[in-house]
Write a structure and sequence with these properties.
The protein is built from 21 helices and 29 strands. By secondary structure, it is an alpha/beta fold. The chain folds into four domains: 122 residues, Chitobiase, domain 2; 345 residues, Glycosidases (TIM Barrel); 99 residues, Alpha-glucuronidase, C-terminal domain (Alpha-d-glucuronidase, C-terminal Domain), CATH 3.90.1330.10; 135 residues, Jelly Rolls (Sandwich). An eight-stranded parallel beta barrel has the order 7-10-11-12-13-14-15-16. Helix 2 runs parallel beside helix 4, helix 14 crosses helix 15 and helix 16 runs antiparallel to helix 19. The chain binds alpha-D-glucopyranuronic acid. The site of alpha-D-glucopyranuronic acid has 8 residues, from loops.
Length: 837
């Protein structure tokens, strides 16, 4: 296999790629896998209307087959004997008189049969036919020519995307460039990327998209913007993706000139009816609305003493005559009045507290959209107990493809293993099997017909790679696959994605798998363990470490860490009572510290740092060890990736390598700051004596300084040895020191801080020999939320490999400040082979 791939690489397959085609590249198969017989010569798409997904399927099949097999079939719309691929709906097959034995299909489902050079793709509806075409092309692109005949149906009817795009073109929690939908407070005039996005979404069987932020702007409801919305819908319709919008509850007042937005006020009701009717004249197949109400400062029905159900039903009734639905978010909590001094206060309780008694009070076209965990997309949370309480109300799960708390697409974190902890979780409602994906979201468990499913928060932007990171795209791909079938295997989905994205080389497939499948665990290890949440800056960018920001505020993401212990007591007997929100069996499991799994220990229990885990370690030692293990795993990623050099195009190889290298450095920043913080709080030493001891580092503040001055940082633990140096003027500054290490070959790493407001330039020397130059310009290369602070978001490092060093040599770093970036340095590490520090 390897040798063969060497050949294909040489034969020019490795042309630079920017990622725009994602997993729909249709790259030509290598000669040994290409079929020369039975290449489809004619495609019959049983619909000649250009806006029809069946028509689109015909075009896509032609494009795909021509790319993959190198021969372009004709597309017609009339059945003929020459036809080798026929795609259409069940109804169209029947009326064309083609005899086919298709089992009963559900909405959006399809039948695919590839036999004797004849391919039949039969959709229950037009969308299903298009999905079948993509499935067939996915097989071909992976060199899979086996004969198949099967039907597949979606696990749930709702498989939507939520973009959090603002009308000014920014994206809330966006790390992949600006919006493809909006610009300058209106709708983008260029719909090319919108239609390309719809193509990607159709290929993973996503059938709806909310295009604007949940923190919604009523300006979207102007006549001009409604007309623009129609253009978006027109661009997405041929791909079977229906468009919907987020609504701002206060619009009747803020945009409609009324003096109220009370959902029971007749003026308000008729205002919304009028707006909805108008929207449907522009977009007759509008999927519906998404509403965030009474949460994080957003207006809602509670403002008028009305229930959340009364609020949701207002929109449901306006949309009902048009066939629209309302996704009403369960992410409702009061961030003004949570008080950490009250041991029983708990934000995690909010969703069930607000919604439990409303079950059955929602109209039948309302779907309550529930974040996977009770807080907010943390690195680990238990499943939301609300899924057990919505028995008469349609519900959907909200997953986040956007890596808001998970490395902002600058860290590789393959999310399906995290999502699986929720989708595979059995809530055991009334003692019966109630697995969230298979039973609850499918509607089976509570006999819900029709409306259940999935909403995925995505921050696709103008970046050529959509999410800003090639590897993050596996999460978007996997989201669609899991929404169709939550029982799919995360590793198998990933392999499909890799083959489609990077080609069929086994080395590439294995490398992506071996990094991705441990990436979430590694990230959890170096961020927040044992269910304590991602220990990031929750009042700021949600990116780098800042454990103390979690407490002493009303956001309710508390750790309750003090000098003696850590964790939220959520038991019924002594804590916030959250554990009791689960059905009996599950509640009993979490109530008891003995039966609570280690990885959720601190979510449910407050324990001393010396509490011994089931793995035999104390909590504090586990923190230390996990942080070291996580950073060590991240350090293997760039090395692993080097194995694919030459097996994929250089552009994507380099771009991925850059991010993985950055991640390896930032994982060490995480490791050190979290360990320093808890070490200082608990005063308990690391049994392995690593925390605070860095044999191979030379702290910048201890070097000879020229135009640099030593400073502390905020928070204190964001610098090695608690100090950095910052240039004291605008001219070049330097730090230098003798190298007291045995002569040999070392990697030299320089830890520095890369701020938003400047691009300082640096140079590393050993004696007077320049080892390398670089610029602090991560802000233009990586999409994370930048800051102007010297802190855990800006902390980064660069490594120069295999440098010959003699004992007594002098190492020197020169830094030239730029803008507000004072060329801050933390330390220089001189690392023997294999040492991660
Ligand atoms: C998080 C996120 C916000 C977002 C909110 C939501 O809190 O940080 O940016 O608006 O979730 O889901 O509504």
């Amino acid at each position: 296999m390897r040798g063969l791939w060497f050949l294909t690489a040489l034969s020019g397959l490795a042309v630079a790629e920017d990622g725009l085609n994602a997993w729909l590249r249709y790259a030509q198969l290598p000669p040994n896998l290409t079929r020369h017989d039975g290449i489809p010569s004619t495609i019959v798409a049983l619909n000649a209307t250009e806006t029809s997904p069946v028509y689109t399927a015909g075009q896509e099949l032609q494009k795909g087959i021509s790319g993959i097999l190198g021969q372009t079939p004709n597309v017609t719309h009339e059945v003929s004997d020459a036809a080798s691929v026929v795609v259409g709906t069940v109804a169209a097959f029947n009326s064309s008189g083609i005899a086919t034995e298709v089992p009963a299909l559900e909405e959006d489902g399809f039948w695919l049969s590839t036999k004797d050079d004849k391919v039949e793709i039969v959709g229950q509806n037009e969308r299903g036919a298009l999905y079948g075409a993509f499935e067939y092309l996915s097989m071909l692109a992976q060199g899979n020519f086996t004969e198949v005949a099967y039907a597949t149906n979606p696990s749930a009817a709702i498989r939507w995307i939520n973009q959090w795009d603002n009308m000014d073109g920014s994206i809330e929690r966006g790390y992949g460039g600006s919006s493809i939908f909006f610009a300058r407070n209106g709708i983008s005039s260029n719909v090319t990327r919108i239609s390309e996005y719809a193509r990607l979404l159709a290929s993973i069987r996503v059938n709806g998209i909310i295009v604007n932020n949940v923190n919604a702007n009523a300006a979207l409801l102007s006549d001009t913007n409604m007309a623009g919305l129609a253009k978006i819908a027109d661009a997405m319709r041929p791909w079977g993706v229906r468009v919907g919008i987020s609504l701002n509850f206060a619009s009747p007042q803020s945009a409609g000139g009324l003096n109220t937005f009370d959902p029971l006020d007749s003026k308000v009701i008729s205002w919304w009816n009028g707006i909805t009717d108008k929207l449907y004249t522009h977009v007759p197949d509008l999927a519906g609305f998404l509403v965030k109400a009474n949460s994080e400062g957003q207006p809602g029905p509670i403002t008028y003493g009305r229930t959340l159900a009364e609020g949701a039903n207002l929109f449901a009734r306006a949309a009902k005559p048009h066939g629209g639905i309302v996704m009403f978010r369960a992410f409702v909590y009061d961030n003004q009045h949570l008080n950490e001094r009250n041991w029983k206060d708990d934000r995690a309780n909010a969703a069930v507290d607000y919604f439990r008694d409303l079950d059955g009070k929602f109209d039948d076209n309302v779907v309550v959209q529930v974040k996977y965990g009770p807080i907010d997309f943390q690195v680990r949370e238990p499943a939301s107990p609300l899924f057990a309480h919505l028995q008469k109300t349609a519900s959907a799960i909200e997953l986040q493809i956007t890596q808001e708390y998970l490395g902002q697409q600058c860290h590789l974190v393959y999310l399906p293993p995290l999502w699986k902890t929720i989708l595979d979780f059995d809530l055991k409602v009334d003692g019966q099997k109630s697995v969230i994906g298979e039973d609850v979201l499918s509607g089976r468990r509570f006999n819900k017909t029709g409306l259940t499913g999935y909403a995925g928060v995505v921050n696709v932007g103008q970046h050529p790679t959509w999410l800003g990171s090639h590897l993050s795209m596996s999460n978007l791909y996997a989201y669609g696959r899991l929404a169709w079938d939550p029982n799919l295997d995360s590793a198998a989905i990933l392999d499909d994605w890799t083959r489609l994205t990077f080609g069929l080389s086994e080395t590439v497939v294995n490398t992506v798998a071996s990094m991705s499948l441990v990436s979430w665990e590694a990230y959890e290890n170096y961020t927040g363990n044992l269910g304590v949440q991602t220990l990031t800056d929750i009042t700021g960018p949600h990116y780098g470490p800042n454990p103390q920001s979690m407490d002493n505020n009303a956001w309710g993401q508390w750790t309750r860490a003090d000098a003696y212990g850590i964790g939220m007591d959520r038991t019924v007997k002594n804590g916030t009572g959250f554990a009791g929100q689960y059905p009996e069996e599950v509640a009993a499991q979490f109530e008891d510290i003995e039966t609570t799994p280690d990885d959720l220990l601190l979510w449910f229990h407050h324990v001393p740092y010396t509490h011994v885990l089931k793995n035999g370690k104390t909590v504090i030692q586990h923190f230390y060890d996990a942080h070291y293990a996580g950073a060590e795993t991240a350090a293997t990623f760039p090395k692993q990736w080097e194995a694919v050099k030459g097996l994929i195009d250089d552009q994507r190889y380099d771009e991925v390598l850059f991010r993985l290298t950055y991640q390896a450095g930032h994982a060490i920043v995480w490791r050190d700051s979290i360990n320093t913080f808890y070490n200082s709080l608990s005063k308990i030493a690391d049994e392995q004596k690593r925390v605070g001891n860095h044999t191979w580092r030379i702290e910048a503040e201890s070097m000879t300084l020229r135009n640099y001055r030593s400073a502390t940082v905020n928070p204190f633990e964001m610098a090695s040895n608690l100090h950095v140096v910052q240039a004291s003027g605008g001219s070049t500054a330097s730090v230098s020191a003798p190298l007291n290490f045995t002569s040999g070959t070392y990697d030299i790493a320089v830890a520095y801080y890369d701020l938003a407001g400047g691009s300082a330039s640096y140079e590393l020397f050993v004696n007077d020999k320049s080892i390398g130059k670089w610029v602090g310009d991560n802000e233009s290369k990586l999409g994370y939320t930048t800051t102007n602070g010297v802190n855990g978001h800006s902390a980064t490092r660069i490594t120069f490999k295999r440098i010959e060093v003699k004992e007594g040599d002098t190492v020197r770093v020169e830094g030239k400040p730029s803008g507000s970036e004072s060329a801050p340095l933390d330390y220089v590490a001189v690392l023997p082979p294999g040492v991660v520090d």
